Amino acid sequence: MYGFPVPIKFFKHYMQYLSQFVPNLSSQYEKFSGFFGPNNKLVPGVTKSDIPLKIVRSGIPPKYRGELWRLFCGVQKKIAENPGLFEEILEKHKTQTSEHTWQIEKDVPRTFPYFNDIEFDKKLRRVLVAYSWYNTVIGYCQSMNIIAGVLLVFMDEESAFWTLDNIVKEKLPHYYSSDMEGALVDTEILEDLLKQYAPKLYAHFTNCDIKLGIFSIPQYLTLFACKLPKETTFRIWDCMLYEGSKVVVEVMLEFICSNQDELLKRRDDADVVTFLNRQLMQIFIPEVALSRNVLVHGIDQKSLEDARIKYTKIVSQQAKNQSNQTMELLEAHMNTQFSWGEVKSIYKQFLYLSDSTTETGDLPKISLSTFKPLIRHVFPKWTNDEFVSWLFKAMDENKDNNLDFRELITGLNTLCKGQSYSRCVTVPIKDLSLSQISLNS
Predict the structure, then answer these.
(1) E-assigned strand segments in 158-245
(2) How many CB atoms lie within 10 A of CB 435?
């Protein structure tokens, strides 16, 4: 359905879901048909308040979904107020590039690679590029390609552009920024709710130093679109765009609490993330994701907004350290071949040895004197000071005589995981036998 692949190991679950979904589809169309005229367009004058929440939560039929998402996000009004603006932006900047357009070019082909659809990629590129020039405060941020990609499944480019604008500015403010403040704040709120509704699990995470944000932040930013089966994802979006961002927090809390027994058996981040991702991929019945077993009456949107104000003050103080560390770890995990456990282990050693007296800004760094014990911890046989000094200089990309974590992990990735040629570029053959290069040397 929709052109998205289903993993072979979950195909049986998917077919079971279809056996229930298809027979119920006609009754779902009947619930919404009164709001639509010919060509599946909304009857003039229909407003969001005319659509009962109950039928939205029961699921919007695919052919009506795009029109209703547009309605929930006030897209028609935006288009009327800004006629032709989308195309004007593209025309005005058609010969220009920026740091954002460069990143968009990298992200578009890997958004939904299984589509293998050149026309879809063109549409996605146009929406993201136009938005990067329109919203110059944000430009383009991580996961916006996923959000825009999902929107394009159900609507045209201009509608996707304005719906994306509504999500970024109103539905999920501060999510799509370089510091991900909104997602960090909602993770703090999630942990507070977990403490209230699942105190045993909260205590377990605390005692094991399990950072819930490693799992929650990617799901918040993509609105579950990368892991959940697509119809389940779209049903969550139906409710989120209608009811507000509280739905995202509700779904996350219910999901984690529903897996409490298994989570209590797991004692590190990597195991928790792997388990939860696998569980998400199996939720083919949307009602399971939208159940309210813990939050019987749901979260009040106004109460959530008040909590966000409270936690924003806390997070803004912590963000420089906490989010930088989280981002460094996430980026290191995504951009290297190290496992999550290896990244954490290296980062822990890096922080322990970092020079607190070095005036290098907010991010910790290590000097040559602290690099030596670290590199010998990884490679005990490397005792030649001259060689270790040369290696330090080779990793020091900005030549400030210090290594930040990105420089360190990139260098170690080349040494431990890289192809023979890339290893030779970093380490002269005469200084080191390639057979010695191993994380366990």
Answers:
(1) none
(2) 7
